[in-house]
Amino acid sequence: MTEISSMVITHSRASVEEMEEVWDGDLENILRDIYSNELVHECAVLKTCNRIEMYVVSNKGSSVMFQFAKKLGLSSNIIDFYDHEESIMHLLRLSSGLESMIIGEDQILGQIKDLYQVAKNLGTTGRTLDTAFSKAIQVGKRVRTETDINRGALSIASAAVDLAEDTVGDLKNKMVLVIGTGEMGTLVTRALSHREIELMYIANRTYAAAKKLADDMGGHAVHFDQIEENLKKADVVICATGAPHFVLRHEQVKKAMESREKALLLIDIANPRDIEPSIGTIPLVTLYNIDNLRVINEKNLEMRMEEAKKAQAIIDEEFGLLIRQYKRQRADHIISGMYAQYYRVRSQEKERALTKLGAYHTIGDIEQKIIDDMTNSIVNKILSEPTKALRDAAELCDDQMLDMAFRLFNVDRCNEKKRIKGELPPCSRKSE
């Protein structure tokens, strides 16, 4: 049976190092790689700083995911494999912020939209994933509208700033250097600007980008080749670039520390990491990464448990509607074929009747419309009950009745072949 299967690797089971080892390639290349498997009819990939998730539509999805994990050399200890309904529930919880490291954070919803669009643009999605992701995005918006799950919610970026304050104290008179001006770097500088920090410096490989962000957030731009000089003065450095390599290296930081006596806090929220791990062994240097933000999340979770319950109630309601929608869609191709066939007969018989009547007298527009409306109404009324019965059968996964409908109404079997190939939606039996 063609259904959604997923392979999920997140902060809950994998460390930063383990997630880095999963895959550091181009998103479009990995989508093409998965889609090239003849058993895969649709696929989408979500990759953020603390999760890598792969969704496929296949009649052998579990086998495909296991083989792909084996190909990547992944340990099963860090992977969750989900079947159709588990994948859907996880996706709805994810879009609502309940699966995030920082419960209720808003950033994940935008990331889902963007990453799903990449797959859609590449042509690796179809009706099944389109339905799931559209519902997930809708549910994510509804949860944030009807609950306070994201009120004062922390992002990874603001959690990094909170971690800095917990470690070095009030940041107002501290010098903070932010490296990176992308989405995460922008969130960091925004979080810092709310702390009214006077000494905020922003560095980026493209100086113009650093200058623009610094002007917007009330900071000071730094040329990338001046980072080492600023390391000698900074109290806190937060790295959030998209570089595929280390931005700060051991020798670079060691040299900067030789000319200072005060401690230096480094926080790395990039994936892959920006800061060489061995830097944490340098005297007076404290290095934190995403794994250390789990403590912040635990505090955040305690405050949000009640709102999380409300969010889960919405998710459960929408989940039931989505599963029902999938099941009812199974009958749609039979019903559309049935109606198309009967409307062809209606059209032929209408024309024959008009021709016969025309032999006796002129048929005006009013008469033609009356006959057209009448034949339409007859077909719709005849097929009304079979349509309801077929949709009910699909909800109950009554394959025997659906198969009988194919033969009874002589519907083209090529539509069924499309469903098997994944071009039409699946039916899950778990809710029976």
TrEMBL record:
Domain Quinate/shikimate 5-dehydrogenase/glutamyl-tRNA reductase: 162-295
Domain of life: Archaea
Active site: 49 (nucleophile)
Site entry: Important for activity: 90
Subunit description: Homodimer.
UniProt name for this protein: Glutamyl-tRNA reductase
An individual GO BP term: protoporphyrinogen IX biosynthetic process from glutamate
Additional notes on this entry: During catalysis, the active site Cys acts as a nucleophile attacking the alpha-carbonyl group of tRNA-bound glutamate with the formation of a thioester intermediate between enzyme and glutamate, and the concomitant release of tRNA(Glu). The thioester intermediate is finally reduced by direct hydride transfer from NADPH, to form the product GSA.
Highest classification ranks of the organism: Archaea, Methanobacteriati, Methanobacteriota, Stenosarchaea group, Methanomicrobia
Tetrapyrrole biosynthesis glutamyl-tRNA reductase dimerisation domain boundaries: 310-410
Family designation: Belongs to the glutamyl-tRNA reductase family.
UniProt keyword list: NADP, Oxidoreductase, Porphyrin biosynthesis
UniProt: NADP(+) binding residues: 180-185
Reactions that this protein is recorded to catalyse: (S)-4-amino-5-oxopentanoate + tRNA(Glu) + NADP(+) = L-glutamyl-tRNA(Glu) + NADPH + H(+)
Keyword NADP: yes
Pathway: Porphyrin-containing compound metabolism; protoporphyrin-IX biosynthesis; 5-aminolevulinate from L-glutamyl-tRNA(Glu): step 1/2
Segments forming domain Glutamyl-tRNA reductase N-terminal: 9-147
Recorded domain comment: Possesses an unusual extended V-shaped dimeric structure with each monomer consisting of three distinct domains arranged along a curved 'spinal' alpha-helix. The N-terminal catalytic domain specifically recognizes the glutamate moiety of the substrate. The second domain is the NADPH-binding domain, and the third C-terminal domain is responsible for dimerization.
Gene: hemA
InterPro entries named in the record: 4pyrrol_synth_GluRdtase, 4pyrrol_synth_GluRdtase_dimer, 4pyrrol_synth_GluRdtase_N, GluRdtase_CS, GluRdtase_dimer_dom_sf, GluRdtase_N_sf, NAD(P)-bd_dom_sf, Shikm_DH/Glu-tRNA_Rdtase
Cross-referenced Pfam families: GlutR_dimer (PF00745), GlutR_N (PF05201), Shikimate_DH (PF01488)
Main enzyme class: oxidoreductase
SUPFAM superfamilies: Glutamyl tRNA-reductase catalytic, N-terminal domain (SSF69742), Glutamyl tRNA-reductase dimerization domain (SSF69075), NAD(P)-binding Rossmann-fold domains (SSF51735)
Function in brief: Catalyzes the NADPH-dependent reduction of glutamyl-tRNA(Glu) to glutamate 1-semialdehyde (GSA).
Molecular function terms, GO-annotated: glutamyl-tRNA reductase activity; NADP binding
